[in-house]
Design a protein that fits this description.
Length: 284
């Protein structure tokens, strides 16, 4: 769950923005059929198997609209859920339930989809020392939700944003003139507590990154044989990350390498949503 400070400072403004996107001035449909206050309840139903994630955000959509809405949950984030399972009952003014339905479900479906996909990928690394990482390939203004979902699914977060760490990619190296120059400049500028990671594409770059004193070396889009040679060259002098179009379908080919990390943008940019619905709305 998000702690109270994170919720108020970083999560609530994003949820409110999403609500405003859906309601410019009023919900004209709801106000047409429900002109007066009426208490009601609706069931949160899972429509496929998966890992549920985002229940706090789902609830927050409704309570930001009306603090009197109550949600009774029968599951918690990270639980395995099955098709047809009743996961919660939402009670409150029917007008609020109707106004918040789509936004609340959008968050829950997206976050649960990422957690479910991440879990399926992470399970393929079970028994190895390799940690599964996400990337910054996230939906704008949804990173905090998507990276949280990766953790719930059993993955780990790479740097949260550009302030979080030094990652010298191909264009940074091009701007600096060489791997050596880029690492040297990063060491001189960045706070000493920041690790320096370098993305490399060939064995010459691997050698240069090691000699320059990189803390982490990312092997990007290399062949399997090139990666094995690179790991031998590094010889424990830096941590090793593997990246480049990693998905559930091809990650198994990397497990024998014994690297520290495998990163996958697919965890956030390609995970399908989980099918979840609010059903059986009625007055109480």
């Amino acid at each position: 769950m998000f702690d109270p400070v994170t919720l108020k400072l970083n999560v609530d403004p994003l949820i409110l923005s999403a609500i405003r996107e859906d309601i410019t001035s009023e919900d004209v449909t709801t106000n047409s059929v429900m002109p007066n206050a009426q208490m009601g309840e609706v069931n949160l139903i899972c429509k496929q198997d998966g890992i549920i994630c985002g229940l706090q955000v789902f609830e927050r959509v409704f309570t930001l609209l009306d603090e009197n809405v109550k949600v009774e949950f029968f599951v918690k984030d990270g639980d395995k859920v099955t098709n047809g399972q009743l996961m919660a009952v939402v009670r409150g003014d029917i007008r609020t339930l109707l106004c918040g339905e789509r936004t609340a479900l959008n968050y829950l479906q997206r976050m649960s989809g990422i957690a479910t996909y991440t879990n399926s990928v992470a399970s393929l690394l079970a028994g190895t020392k390799t940690k599964l990482l996400d990337t910054r390939k996230t939906t704008p203004n949804n990173r905090i939700f998507e990276k949280y979902s990766v953790r719930i699914g059993g993955g780990n977060n790479h740097r949260y944003n550009l302030t979080d760490g030094v990652l010298l990619k191909d264009n940074h190296i091009g701007a600096a003139g060489s791997v050596t120059n880029a690492v040297k400049m990063a060491k001189e500028y960045a706070p000493f507590v920041r690790k320096i990671e370098v993305e490399v594409e060939n064995l010459d770059m691997v050698k240069e990154a090691v000699e320059a004193g990189a803390n982490i070396i990312m092997l990007d889009n290399m062949t399997h044989e090139q990666m094995k040679e690179a790991i031998e060259l590094i010889a424990g002098r830096a941590e090793v990350e593997v990246s480049g179009n990693v998905t559930k379908e091809n990650i198994a080919r990397l497990t024998d390498l014994g690297v520290d990390y495998i990163s996958s943008g697919a965890l956030t940019h390609s995970a399908p949503i989980m099918d979840i619905s609010l059903k059986n709305l009625h007055a109480i």
